[in-house]
Amino acid sequence: MSASVSEIMDADPVSVGPEEGVERIVELMHENELPGLPVVDDDGILLGIITESDLLLFDEPDDVDPPPSVQIMGGVIYLGSVKHWEERVRKSIAGTASELMTDDPITITADATAHDAGHLISEHRHNRLPVVDDEGHLVGVVTRVDVLEALLEDR
Questions:
Q1: Of the ranges 59-68, 118-127, 132-141, which is most confident?
Q2: What CATH superfamily is the domain 5-154?
């Protein structure tokens, strides 16, 4: 039988508040060797998550230059996704966790199984999932490695 998420998660994850600065976020990720941090409010409610990819602009010209466009009769028509471009520009000038984080992250509950967590991690191509209670409080983080170890023990 598959272990529950509560059995395999880190029940005391490092997190940051929405007003935490980018430098401190990078420092915490480095000190704790973490690829991401949950963002919580003063009551411990999960607001979002910051990952390494939120901090890095992999291909700067493509990420911060607007998509190709044409001008017709004084108006501009973009030929590519403006949403992606706007998001990357916003993150490139972010100064706080709330400006940098990905809102509404994929989460799981502590009573879910390791198999359930593995499915979500695989489906969404994440390395870690915040674990929340019914009110949205952060109660832990479960990683891909946690899940793999649990699933190997089930064999």
A1: 132-141
A2: CBS-domain (3.10.580.10)
Kindly tell me the burial class for residue 137, based on how many C-beta atoms sit within 10 Å of its own C-beta (0-12, 13-18, 19 or more).
Answer: middle
Q: How do the domains of the chain map onto residue ranges?
A: 5-154
Distance CA 35, CA 126 (A): 10
Amino acid at site 110: A
Tens digits of residue pLDDT in 125-134: 999 999 999 9
Q: Say how far apart CA 135 and CA 35 lie, in whole Å.
A: 25
Query: pTM of the prediction?
Result: 0.78
Torsion of CA 6, 130, 146, 3, to 10 degrees: 30
- Structural contact between residues 36 and 55, judged by C-beta atoms closer than 8 angstroms: no
- Contact in structure between 127 and 143 (CB atoms under 8 Å): yes
